[in-house]
Specification:
Strand 6 and strand 7 form a beta hairpin. With about 375 residues, the chain is of the alpha/beta class. Helices cover about 40% and strands about 25% of the residues. It contains eleven helices and 15 strands. It is globular, with a radius of gyration of 22 Å. A six-stranded antiparallel beta sheet has the order 2-1-4-5-6-7, with helices on one face. The longest helix is centred in the middle third of the chain and has 37 residues.
């Protein structure tokens, strides 16, 4: 059975366009309003960095450091099942540190799985119609909680892949060291494939029920994992060996988990080609709610839910469906919006809902 998890306090320093922010959120609904460009998304990003050690907006984390500052620091107190812990994430140009209860975490996977969090932001609409990279990241987020070793497999495969390609580019397909790198790629690549397959299976069940709640229950949704390579280690190693000349010519590896995809179908037709814009939006949101359910079951705690201006991307009826879900959810919710009046569904009690306003990076009471 899942336990309650929430942010008790949050402090942000030197992060993007935010001034010194000290936030004491409510246990359920936190509505953060403000005009565009005031720092609402940056505040959610800071919270996401604190929980995961990563950003949902960029790959290069040093970009969050505020101009003129040497370091960006996000710290906070979180309560899980009644027990409070302290977390801190600091990002400098040449160093990153992630700390829990004053103890630096040596393994990022250990840190990233302590505080499950799911974010839905406008860019997630590309989960359906965009490239496979976004869908692979979704699989990897779920895989991380199902098996934290998935991060290690992914990093080791990517490192060996880069070195193999460097050798192909500089010394050709006959370089002796290629064998060693291909063995590493085969070992970790096939492990990653199997972990992503399991993640896809978990998402399939959760996404089906989520789409039925949000969309038309008569329309059937299906998720299918499309592996970029074989599941057997020796088969992948052999195919890498046989593909050296092609990979040298193309300057990229043609087979492996970096080619994985999660194919999404509506009534047995690929959604990225045949779904309407409205259906694609509902599917993207259903995938995020499925991610929330998967993390909850895997971690045993209700993940934090961050919604960045979601009302701007949905029509009235779909927005109401989201609100109905939020009322039933036991997650702590952080919502950003330019129109706080849209969130009249949330209870007005100060113990259930807190309103805040951001103006030029500074936080005001709502």
């Amino acid at each position: 059975m899942a336990v309650e998890l929430g942010v008790v306090s949050l402090q942000v320093r030197g992060f993007r366009n935010l001034t010194a922010v000290d936030l004491k959120p409510g246990p359920r609904f936190n509505v953060i309003s403000g005009d565009n460009g005031q720092g609402k998304t940056s505040l959610l990003e800071a919270l996401y960095v604190l929980c995961t050690s990563r950003s949902f907006r960029i790959e290069k984390l040093t970009e969050v450091i505020q101009a003129g500052n040497a370091v960006a620091v996000v710290s906070g107190q979180l309560k899980e099942a009644g027990v409070v812990r302290r977390q801190r994430a600091s990002v400098a140009r040449d160093e990153r540190q992630f700390v829990i209860d004053d103890k630096p975490q040596a393994r990022l996977s250990d840190y990233a799985t302590r505080t499950p969090v799911v974010v839905f932001q406008p860019g997630d609409l590309q989960l359906i119609s965009g490239s496979a990279a976004g869908r692979r990241k979704l699989l990897d987020r779920v895989s991380l909680f199902l098996n934290p070793l998935s991060m290690d497999h992914r990093q080791r495969f990517a490192s060996a892949q880069r070195e193999r390609q460097r050798l192909l580019d500089t010394r050709g397909s006959g370089a002796r060291e290629l064998d060693a790198y291909e063995r590493v790629m085969a070992k970790h690549g096939t492990e990653l494939e199997r972990m992503r397959l399991l993640a896809a299976e978990k998402l399939q069940h959760a996404a089906t029920s989520a789409f039925e709640r949000l969309g038309d229950p008569r329309v059937k949704v299906a998720l299918r994992f499309a592996p970029g390579g074989p599941y057997e280690e020796e088969q992948l190693r052999l195919q890498l060996y046989q593909g050296r000349s092609d990979d040298q010519r193309r300057k990229s590896t043609r087979i492996g988990p970096h080619k994985d995809d999660l194919e999404i179908e509506l009534d047995h037709r690929l959604a990225r080609r045949h779904a309407s814009q409205g259906q694609q939006r509902m599917l993207a949101l259903a995938l995020k709610l499925a991610e929330l359910e998967c993390l909850c079951h895997a971690r045993g705690a209700f993940p934090l839910l961050l919604l960045d201006d979601v009302s701007s991307e949905l029509d009235h009826s779909r927005t109401n469906a989201v609100y109905d879900f939020l009322k039933q959810s036991q997650s702590q919710v952080f919502l950003t919006t330019t129109r706080p009046e849209l969130f009249s569904f949330a209870p007005s009690s100060s113990t259930e809902r807190c309103d805040f306003r951001l103006e030029q990076g500074a936080l005001r009471d709502g």
